[in-house]
Amino acid sequence: MMSSKIMASIAAASSAMISLQPSSSDEINPFTAPDAVISNHIIGIHDSQAPKYDVDSLFNVVSNIVKNTHLGQSLDLKRPKAVELIEDRIPQSCFMPPFSTLKEIAFLMTCKPFSRSTAHETVVGILEKLRSYTWDAKAVIALCAFASDYGDTCRLSLMEPTKENTLELHIFRLGEESKPSQSNLDLISTLIDITFKLIEGILTLEKIIADNTYSPRDVPTLYAAPRDLYTYWAILALLTCADRKTDLDWNVKSEVVGKLNHVLMRLNKEVTEIEQHKEAGNDRTWRSRVLLSPSGIVELLRALIFPRETVELEIFDNTLQQVVSNDVLKTKNLLLFISGLDNIENEISVLKSIHEALKKDREKQKHEILWIPVVNDETEISEEQAKFKHVKSSMPWYVLQNLKVIKGKKVVEDEWHYQGKPIVVVTNPRGEVIHKNALHMIFISKIEAFPFRPEDEGNLIAQWNWFWNEATKVHPEIRKWIWDDKYVFFYGGTDIGGTQRIGTLIEAIKKDPIIKQADAPIEHFNLSKLDPNSTSKFWDNISHCFLSLIQRNNHEQDPVLKDIQTLLSYKNEKSWILLSKGGKVLVLGYDPVVTSTLENFDEWRLNVQVLQGFGNEFVNYYNQNKPSVPDHCLHFELNNIRTRIPTSITCPEPSCRKKIMEIETVCYKCCHGIHYQNPSENLNSSETHESHVLKSKWAE
Question: What pLDDT score was predicted for residue 240?
């Protein structure tokens, strides 16, 4: 009688509870459905603003309940690890989910038949009830619901029904099933073990995400992890374990085990990657901090090159053929030559001249050069060993003893703008950076740039010294012409015949009696007469001047930079001329104005004496005739850039209406607000045309 009443009560309760089960018109087989399909079904029933609770403590308690449930010798769960709480993420309260919610979830787990066709619907129903909880809380609450029923039922299934009150307990707990087979117990044991590991991984992942110390930039994989899918499969695994049917298809449970192993492997891989990114982020932060405020040169080098725990640095003196001790390094001003292994012959050559000059001067012997080769990965190291040894053998200064991937590569790229082209960073014994890239000034002025400070660079490039340094390299006699305060024509261009005609015109002017009477000695040099390598080197060095200045603050208003830009823009002109009186530049112009000024010498020759100077009259006639020649686009290219690419450059032409030259790769162009296709175009038109030769884009 009692039994029939109890069964009637249970039936009534079951009818009421069935109304709580979710309904879905879509039948999804989680074992075959793509992750995206499953995710789309469950992501909409999650509150992304759900509060954070102390689910870690609840997980530890529930873990002990399940762990202490004995299902035979096959179940040997390891004691779950206690999950540490984040110090700055204090839980809102000691978490205990509503009892009614636990019972509803437990009912769905135990009373709804488990199959491939119903599993997804049941998991979605549980997630609906847990909408307002975080993903880790959903998994732990589901585990809690599972544990509330799992222990008693399994113990009862192992008890003899003849014992006192056992029958009634079986009826109350729906424990009428026959004793599960050993193989089924083993499979459930494996399922529970994997499920615990999966939930532990979910907790770890949520803990990392809750730590606001790390951003997506520091840990790019942090927010890419499919937390919804991990929780989904953890709940589905609990459904499988909770199923009462001993005749449940063994293959279904095996399929769940296989899927869980795959999911767990993926989760562990992502957690490992996240931890690695965290460690890399912490390491990068430390190295960046050292670069900004080092305690000395040894710490700076450690942050640039070596693992953090390195004590003695592997720096090798290639002249003495011995390792340099930390104590010796602490006394040195270092020129850190940072480069790859290819195409650095020119840099090595110029640095050799610096090294020799440093060794000859006793006051400069506290300065040393250190080569820091940069390779991308370990594979490149094994492939480039022979090249490294060869390049290293040509250097008489400090080098790394062994080729390695420098630990501070990312920091060097971010802080010192290293982009694969060589740079020379100057530091003092305190590890302070004196100059982030002195290579350009070293190319221009060699040892005269010592001690390679930014202010030394400004003094060297002041006025037109930057030009005369290069001009005297290609034609040393120019130095004497400047010293004698002569008029100097320095000219060149792509039209060889045109530049030769300029030389002929200048020679004729030199012989004119008026010039001799005016005591105006004239000399000239044609850059186009040089061999291509020498000409290319001249323009490369002028580009170094430009790049050196562009690194300085407020470079936009620097008049020296304007002059360099103007000269660079003439590189591909048919012909151009620079006229100076001694070292003072009077005119820098291009064809056809300069040629016509020389050709029409008879028109202004008589004014040379009246205006007291050949230079004054040349400038006067040039300026009078320049407006009659249509403006044309200025453009210049920078090859082999050895530092970060500048963004925008102001046009050096005073009459320019647009002002900004826009960079296209490494080619600067400016047409001063106009375009032309032939000299007959109306230049006063307000329309902007596009040339078939040059395409210009304006940065408004």
Answer: 81
